[in-house]
Structure formats: structure tokens, C-alpha cells
Amino acid sequence: MFSFQQYVLAESLEQAYELNQKKNNVILGGTGWLKLGKKSYGTAIDLSGLGLDQIIETEEEFSIGCMVTLRQIELHKGLNDTFGNACKEAVRHIVGVQFRNLVTVGGSLFGRFGFSDVLTCFLAMDSYVELVGKGVVSLEEFAKMPYDRDVLVRLIVKKDGRKVSYQSFRNQSTDFPVIAVCAAELQNGKKIASVGARPARAVLCSVENEDWTKELTFGSNMRASAEYREFLAKILLQKAWEELA
Amino acid sequence: MKIKFRLNGKMVTDEVVADTPLLEYLRSKGCYSVKRGCETSNCGLCTVLMDGKPVLSCTTLAVRADGKEILTLEGLQKEAEEFGGFLADQGADQCGFCNPGFIMNVIAMTKELEDPTEEEIKEYLAGNLCRCTGYQGHLRAIQAYLEAKQGGIL
Q: With an 8 Å Cβ cutoff, are A31 and B60 in contact?
């Protein structure tokens, strides 16, 4: 379990940003990942009081506050109607309902975890993150950025008419994915996919060529070998196109 | 940190050390149904309802209960007894250690899902681990319980 000396319920994003500049401080998401560590922090900064736990849908986009839980993503009708249940499919295997009622979109994205279903899912959409310091950055760029002391405010997902399908493979239900693929067909017919749990930060790639996996790096760990992951990635992409056909 | 929240129907105002997990705090208040079965947020034994939603009390902080309503099995004795009877009918439990968290999530499920399919039941309860059984008895107990509720027997 992680520990900290002080707790601050932030009254503004500016205050949270300022407090977060100190290296020993930490922003609390749903604490699902933090609690697995044993690190001791100075001040824990809570963004719960800033009304960032809402999904706001307009005609052009979804604005998803950083404190929105994975369960809210799973159950949001607008989001799932627009993207063919891809968001639901991406999160429904993550641990259990009780866990998904706590852990947040902000924490999942900011961590840019190598196993992240959430990052893989939204990367295949026209997504952006709003940061207090850097402003609005595309999720594709954010996924490549090194960790810094910025504060993630919200995720913005544009409704651009693309069709999306999320596929993942797990050795066991509720475990981390062995490999995850989120495929998208844009309105102009272009086909792309994000591939996560390789196991490394999800990346976006073009899938027009037959040997599209060659430009990606896959790794081996206790769950699977690099070769197996690459093989599965191709199969999952095929399944995604079958679903979208 | 000062927190004020509703625990099993009673208002509680208390002083907590800011990094205390909700699980340890609730046990210190005598809610011994709340158990720690793992260290990795996976087992579901510590499930409590926070504003009606099932959450892992091992994973969230006690300070985050501030302003909320928390229900543990101690506050849901009637429902627990009703469903517990169906579990016993199937001989579904062995050591019983996972029962409180499991029953809490079943109660949450019956409030959230209307007439769930077998697949939906399995998915809702996937985050509750039981090391003794094969879950089949649990599943039969839930189905019998839901049928009894629908038939107006309960």
C-alpha cells in the first residue's frame, strides 16, 4: 500500500498543478495502481471536488472528465452507440465491477501503462487530452510523451463517423490482456489500428499492408512470447474487420 | 482529516489518518464482514457499497468516503440472510471467507441489473474470487434467488 503525509482536496486545477510540481507529491486517480506500490509520498492531491466525473456529449464530441470511472465508460449509452460498443468491450474484462467503479480514465491514460486497454481503445479514435500546462494535445502524441508533472483534465473524443472495433486476448478472464487491438475504419475508407499490451505503450499504426505488424515491436513476458503476441495481433485485427463488415 | 459520512444508516463524524484504506477504517469501526483476501485488488472480498455502487474498500481511501453513504454487510442483514439461505440450500460455500464480499456484490447486482442472463451474472461477479468451490453452486443459488424474487416469494 502506498502512503502519504498530507491530503489536499484541490479547489482548482491551478492549485493541483502547482502542488504537483513537487516531485514527491502525487495526484490520486482511482488509486488502483498507486495502491499496488509501496511508495511514500508527501502530499496526495485529490481532484474529486472539481466536477470532473462527468461525460458530456455534444453533437461533435464527448468530453470525458479525468475522474470518470471505467464503469461509467462501460455504461455510457452515447459513447457505446457511437463507437459500436468498443469502449464497453475495452473495459469490461478489467478485474471486476467493484474495481471499475473506482479506477479513472485520467489515471489510466496518464499512466500510459504497457497493459492499458483504455489507452489502446481511445488511441484508435480521434482523441485528445487536455492538460493544465500544455493545453490540448492529441492522444497519439501524448502516448509517446515522457512522464512529466502536468495534470490531465479531460479526454476529448471527436465524433468523426469512424467505425471502431475493440479486440483483446486474455489467458484468463479479468487478467491483463496478452495483446489488445483496436481497429478503426475512417469515413474516407482508411484503415488504422492501435495495438497495446505488446507489452508496451499502445501505438497507432497503418494496417493497409499484409505485413503491418513488422513495423511494431513485440515483447515477451510471463503471459506470452513476442512471436505469439504478433500472431494474435493479426488474428484480432481480422476479427475486428469481420465484426465491422 | 475530518470525515463525515453515513455508515449503515448512521451519521459518523470522525478523524482519520489521511492515507488509511477504507477497509482498515471500516474494520476499526467494527465492520468485520469486510475482509482482505488479496493484496492486488482482485479478490472482491472487501466489497462495500459506496452511494449504492459496489467498490473495493481495500483500494479506496477512507477520506474518499467523506459525504458518501457506505453500506457493509452489517447494514444489510435482511438481504444477506435471504440470499444466504439460497447459498446454504446449494451447499455453495465451504470456508465462507469470501461470502460477505460476494453477497455484497450479488445485492449490488440485483439492484443494478434487471433479469440478468447467466452470462451477465458471470460478468458482474467475475471480480469475486472463491478458492474452495467451482462457482457452480453460487450460480445456482443466484438463479434460484432471482427466481424467488421475481415470483414474489421474497
A: yes
